[in-house]
Description:
By secondary structure, this protein is of the alpha+beta class. It has a single domain (35-231), classed as Sortase, Chain: A, CATH 2.40.260.10. The chain is 30% helix and 25% strand. The protein has helices at residues 4-33, 35-44, 52-58, 75-82, 111-116, 147-151, 224-231, and strands spanning 90-96, 101-106, 118-120, 131-135, 158-162, 166-179, 193-199, 205-218. The protein has an eight-stranded mixed beta barrel. Helix 2 runs parallel beside helix 4. The chain is globular and about 80 Å long. Mean pLDDT is 85; it is low at 25-34.
Amino acid sequence: MDQEPKKQPRRNGRRWAYRIVFAVLIAISLGLIFNEQIKNWMVTSYQPKITAKSVKKNEKKKANFDFRNAKSLNFQTVAKARMNTNKIHAVGEILVPKSGIHLTIGKGVSNTTLALAAGTLRDNQKMGHGNYPLAGHHMIKKNVLFSPLYYKTKVGDNIYLTNMTKIYRYKVYKRQFIAATRVDVVNQTKANIVTLVTCDATGAGRLMIRGKLTKTMAYAKAPTAIKKGFAAKFNNHNVFAGY
């Protein structure tokens, strides 16, 4: 009779242990189920304020341009980037209206930069002068980062770049799948073009989009629809006209 009360605390302890283990398993399961959704939310929640003054300052900063060191965009990479956004040196914005692309352009191609923005592939490249190459990730979600390049962008579409002082309009003239080893597409050219690079569906190759410069204008004098596009949230896909 004296031993029975002693067994009750052990039983209660086991029940709480089972409940804790069950709760942990549920949390892990939910994390796995909603992994992509959480990752996409972290990417789209990056909404920096970019000004002509901040661009001028960031253009002078050092950056990593070795695209070979870029990692695949997993949950850990995005989470780490989201906590280190101060390491992204914004030097402008890109807008592709028909594809619903509106992203920050960061200097260099560090994993932090590419997790949340498009990255420049060569030091000292200038918008509107020669080749302006940019790299971006292709994600499972079709409307995040450079994914729309693969699913939507076509020859004839317009691409807009801005350093917050001027806006440069390019017209797509080439859509081509290339080998990942084609680093020559980053090289400077005599023609004033923009080169956008992202992964193909397999991840082993690359999709290259090229556009030719057709117009340069002051930011303040740009068409209202374009200024609204640049003023909208990044990765916002519902506000663009077919410019």
